[in-house]
Each structure stands twice: as C-alpha cells, then as structure tokens.
Amino acid sequence: MTQSKPFRGGNPLRALRGPLFAMVLAIVSVGCDSQDSSSSQNILTNVESPLTTPDRLTKLRKAKFLNLTERDAAAEWLALQEHRDDVSYRPTPDDVATYERRIALLAKLTDEDRRMVANRTVQTRDLLAEQNIHESLLTLLDGMTDVAKASVVGNYSAYCQWYVNLRQSRLDHQQALQQMTSLKRAP
After folding, report:
1. Which residues of 54-63 are buried (b: 16+ CB within 10 A; e: fewer)?
2. pLDDT digits (tens, 9 = 90+) for 35-82
3. HSE on the CB side for 60, CA within 13 Å?
4. What angle do CA 162, 163, 165 make, to 5 degrees?
5. What is the pLDDT of residue 46?
6. Are 177 and 147 in contact (CB under 8 A)?
7. What pTM was computed for the model?
8. CA 123, 164, 103, 184 torsion: positive or negative?
9. Beta-carbon neighbour count of residue 78 at 10 Å?
10. Left, alpha or beta for 171 (phi > 0: left; psi -120 to 50: alpha)?
11. SS3 (DSSP) at 152
C-alpha cells in the first residue's frame, strides 16, 4: 500500500507560500488605503475614554452594588452614586481620583477590598437616608478613615454598621466618630 502525499514535494509551506503572500499583501494594502489621512485622526479624537463611555456610565449608574468583575470601577461608581439624581453627571478624572485616594487608603488601613469599601459606603449612606439622616459619601469615607487611623478594633463592615447604629441613636456625625475612636486597640 502506498501513501499519497497531499502536497507535491512533501513541503506544505511551499505550497501555501504564494496564496499566503497574496493574502498578507491584500490585508496590508486595505489597511493603508485611506483617502484622507485626517480621517484616522478624527477617529482618535472622537473615541471617548473608557472612564466616561456612555454605555459604561449607564451600566455603573444603574448598579446597586459592585460585583467582583467591577473591582476597578469602585471610585467611578462612587462618584456616580454621589450624583445619582443627576443623570447628566459625568465624573471627571479629578472626581474619580478624589474617591480613589480615599478608597485606596481605607482598603489599606482596614485590609478590605476596594470594591467592598465602595459597596459598604453606599449601603451605609442608604441605610441612614431611610432614617432621614443624610451624609455624603466623601463625609462617610473621611469619617471611617479617621476611625481606621485610630486603630479601632474591627473591619470596615463593622465600622459602617456601628456608625449606622450610633447615628440611629441620634448622635450626629462627629459624636458618632468620637465614640468610635475612643475605643482604640490596646498598644
């Protein structure tokens, strides 16, 4: 029984060399075929940053909490949550950076995930709002940072729950933080 070779000469690359070269040449020539060099510049200037694309903003604006795949959007999501009643609001890079600095610091101080810090902060704000107690997300982040810097026992979730309980017992923001920071860890 004899075996037939599918390619003459036994070298499949040699048989494909001509068609492969023609295909590469066609792809390159299509990519270079531009009527106006400024059209490619227009495309670049019209592309929005991933931070502010409308679809991404709409999705983040509607999110009730951040899931594991949205870990990198925590600061942007907080900025949107702070302005949730303003559908035209688009966070600037400075807005996002303001939240990012606070989230990163709290995550480091409390050994929590940035996403969890964002989720708990919004949850705390919303629980307080149900009791007609209104605090901004930045105020909550700054207050919990003070608590964490005072080495109070607990994690971020515990801080937030404790804060909600103290506020519901009619303490104002500063009084609640003072009570929390008075219970520091033993040296």
Report:
1. eeebeebeeb
2. 444 433 333 333 344 545 668 788 888 888 898 877 689 999 999 999
3. 29
4. 65
5. 39
6. yes
7. 0.69
8. negative
9. 29
10. beta
11. strand
Q: Hey, what amino acid is at 152?
A: V
DSSP lists the bridge partners of residue 152 as 184
At 159, list the tokens: 């801080």
Task: With CA atoms as reference, report the closest residue to 101 among 113, 114, 89, 112.
Answer: 114
Whole-angstrom CA distances from 46 to 11, 52, 53, 143 are 48, 12, 11, 40
Residue among 68, 72, 64, 65 at smallest CA distance from 96: 72
Q: Go through the chain and tell me how many residues it has.
A: 187
Dump the DSSP string for the chain: --PPPSSGGG-HHHHHHHHHHHHHHHHHHHHH--S-HHHHHHHHHHPPPTTT-HHHHHHHHH-SS--GGGGGGHHHHHHHHHTTT-TT----HHHHHHHHHHHHHHHHHHT--HHHHHHHHHHHHHHHHHTT----HHHHHHHHHHHHHTTBSS-HHHHHHHHHHHHHTT--HHHHHHHHHTSBPP-
Distance CA 98, CA 53 (A): 20
What the block records as the tokens of 161 is 């729950």
User: Tokens 């990198």 identify what position?
Assistant: 72
Structure tokens at 171: 């303490």
What's the token pair of residue 68? 């594991």
Gyration radius of the chain over CA positions: 28
Structure tokens at 58: 């709409």
> What residue type is assigned to position 125 of the chain?
R
